[in-house]
Amino acid sequence: MATAVHCVFCFEILSASLDSRPALSLSHIQELWEQYQVSSGKGTRDDEGEGDSDETDEEPTSRRPRLRTGFDRLIAPSISSASSSSVPSTISTSSSKTHNSSLGSSSNSSASSFFSTGRKVSAQSGQAQQQAPTPSEERPLFVTWNAISSRSGSKSLRGCIGTFEAQPLEQGLKSYALTSAFEDSRFMPITKRELSGLEVGVTLLTDFEPAPNPTSWDLGKHGIRISFTHHSKRYGATYLPDVALDQGWTKEETLISLMRKAGWSGRRDDWHKVGDLQVVRYQGKKMSMKYNEWSAWRKWIEMSGLL
Questions:
Q1: Global pTM value
Q2: What is the pLDDT of residues 61-78, one digit of tens each?
Q3: Are the C-beta atoms of 197 and 148 separated by less than 8 Å?
Q4: Distance in angstroms between the alpha carbons of the first and the last residue of the chain
Q5: Which phi-psi region, left, alpha or beta, contains residue 213 (left: φ > 0; alpha: ψ -120 to 50)?
Q6: How far is 39 from 84, CA to CA, in rounded Å?
Q7: Distance of CA 108 to CAs 70, 87, 172, 220, 241, Å?
């Protein structure tokens, strides 16, 4: 599962890019984070769940405000081969050279690998999935940036991009921390003045398996990845495990929304009539962290002379 260190690393990568400075490595951050936790008497946060995430000390889902996003596209919204415009690239041609130089080739894989789980996924044992992965281990992953309102505390999506192709964690987190911050075509690139109002979420994906039928998955536990054929065109899209709960959707509402996201325009009551609707379910516990927690750690290592 994702850990607090992964969130710290994403904030470090984004901050370093915005400040045009070198970023600390994932292994170095792991060492410094452990020292920070011990010095502050907190132990380690990595085994304590999500900390500042949506699922900790929150109101029940029915009373939680919805994210103001609609999650129109986490990655490519459609895999229809009929129109190239229906499969936008995760990399924007208008991005700056600084951003592009840090991304690497893996950033382009989210669309091309949309229906490929990656060779490492199925090989993971249950025991291995429960352990904190090393920087060199390969995992499918998503990075999400939310903007937190200073007045109401409400969240709004600021960027979310990932891949189903297993990535070495250090390379994958670095690539998608920046790609989701700067290259999500739904939003303007994140700026330095926004940094203090951000929250990052990291989801490492595991346990991919075909669902026996479209509703054979559990809300809050599974993410789903759908594919179907409509009017001789092939479509596909995904929602991460936390999306349906955050939006307050039922399974049917989730499926209809996801089909709309993929590009289906039929009547909502006809969703079950779509031919060849296939659902792959997967799991992924999201770890989230707000800027102030990363900032406190960063100030501690600077004051301690550990840089």
A1: 0.73
A2: 333 344 433 333 333 333
A3: yes
A4: 28
A5: beta
A6: 53
A7: 23, 12, 11, 28, 23
